[in-house]
Amino acid sequence: MPNSCHVYLLRDGQRQVLTIPDEFALFSTEVLLRKEGNRLIIEPISSGSLLSLLATLEDITENFPDIDEGLSQFV
Question: How far is residue 28's CA from residue 20's CA, in Å, rounded to a whole number?
Answer without folding.
Answer: 13
